[in-house]
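For the sake of clarity, the format in which proteins appear in this thesis is described at this point. The record quoted next illustrates the convention:

___
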Amino acid sequence: MHPVILAEMLIYCLGMLIVGYYFVRREMTQSDYLLGGHKLPGWALALSERATGESAWLLLGATGFAFSTGLSSIWVFIGIPIGIIVAWIFLAKRFMKETQKTGALTIPDYLAVRFGKHAKTIRWLSALLIIYFFMFYLGAQFAGAGKTLSSTFGMSVTAGVLLCAAVVVIYSCMGGFFSVVWTDVIQSFLMIATLVILPIVALIYILLNDLSIHDSLIQAGPSFSSWTGGAVGLAIGVLIVNNFSWFFGYMGGQPQLSARFMALKNEKEANTARNVAIIWTILAYGGAFTIGLCGLALYKTDQFKDVEMVLPQMITDLFPSWIGGILLAGILAAIMSTASSQLLVLTSSVSEDIAHKALGLTLSEKALVRLSRVTVILAGVVGTVIALTSESLVYTVVSWAWAGIGNTFSVAILLTFFWKKTSGVGIIATIISGFISTVIWISTPLDEMLTSRFSTFVIALIFGIIFSLVFPNQQEPTTDVKEAS
């Protein structure tokens, strides 16, 4: 590893720890620790939501996908931004208002409050679903960090996993939501710098060296230069649906993202956050798509054993080491921002949804915060063990998590927000059917024909509607968060 790059990486990690140390000195309530106590500015929450939502998948996976498929990858780069933009325009303020009205700190908490008669069942099912999937999801982030640090910085995979896990666990434990959000802000700037500066420099290099993206697409093969990947007939629709289907997971169902909506404090801050998030999203996804296509002009399609390394290779080839180190830190930033938020979601499910609400433990605010910090450490340890021992399982469950959690909760949230006939039994049916259908769909050849990111949403929606109609809510007053527990 180049000494300049190593120094920059260590400075970055130290900076994250300093942020955590700054907030550990504050007196915090459980609401502060898990949701920032509605004290954070909207622009910071927007940048945090974007950094959290875009892990190394955007910088490595999405750019590698564009490099390996060509123009047909555009449907991913359209579907995801539309989902993000729709969520910020139509769901963010609704989350804020519902949170302020109910006092809920988590998605399971909110759903339980809204359907008081079935509160405990909803709380247990939701919390256990999050804990199961997110424990492996967290392990996947740590494993991804090990792979990234090994490929880009020359560090061993084990050392990379341990370094990332240690830094994330320490600053998340110390400052909770405050330190996670403010470190996300730093990380979002690093990520956007990489995704904006790199394609500009790459395009200039291509122009000055008489290279052509158009010619490289044609040379790569007929599917690369086609917006539909060479598909015909029904296959075109399947390709578009499969790539576009990432959209559904952004409809309020990702707890680590919806927490930022719930933390907004007023209408003005929500408007600011919406604008910042939309601008960041357009720049980031436009940059990632361009990087993939530029890679085709710079390298041969068979040059990489792992196409996800096209972005790090471009940085190494096009920038001096001191600038390259800063941009490469953007990859580590993407991983850490997502991992820390997932860690906090796991913590909230254990300390708030299960210990405090489902089990009804009577604890002081200090004791709740202490329990949350202990949970952060334990979850971090388990996630690290998973990352070091079960890599293949981890990456399988990551696919499950997007559909099993994101699409399942998206249906539950959309029904609760926008359909008055939604019942508690309907929400229970949504959660159970979403989980079961995801596991079955991904475990069979069905997923190769039509992605579970689409099927889970449709199946959970159908079950939610049918069971809400068959088992409507009894007329009862809306309970507050304390009564529902």
Notes: Residues 238 and 449 are 8 Å apart (CA to CA). Confidence is low (pLDDT under 50) at residues 476-485.
